[in-house]
Design goal:
single chain; 178 residues; five-stranded antiparallel β-sheet; three-stranded antiparallel β-sheet; 1 helix; rod-shaped
Amino acid sequence: MSDVYHLDDAVRAMIRRAKLVSLDDSGGQQMMGLAGLKGDSPRKVPRVQPYGFTSNPPADSVGVLLSLGGRSDRAMVIGVEHEAYRPRSLPGGATAIYDQFGSIVSLVEQEVRVVHAQKVVVSAPEITLEAGGSRMTISAGGTDIQSPALRHNGRNIGETHVHTNVQPGLGNTGQPAA
């Protein structure tokens, strides 16, 4: 029986829950200070993140502390999240990237949603938006819109628009007709 208890203790020492206390994000890998079991406070534990994604979780986030072979010098943290900020009730198959300030980029069914309470910034040397046969390209050279129709406040301002009150000579026209 003592071998079973010894093995049970070894497994508990290898895999446990830990709460984030501090984080150093200045190096090649994030290093975390954690609060684990009573009296257990590992420091400078590397956080393993998936390639192409990084985050800086707020204090009190929770993750899994793995100590390979039960050794603290082989510890790493995975799966860190904060329950207060995690989006809830996403449908099956949905994916979301979020932060503690209410920003969220989500892939839900047939939509890509970008939500932020203050401002969304898209920055690139050239930005192209395409939808249903229309295309808008924004670059340093200007904005090019290719579309079967172009409207502003319900008025046709595209290449097929006409004006009211056209006066010959040097006069001005009225607003574009609806």
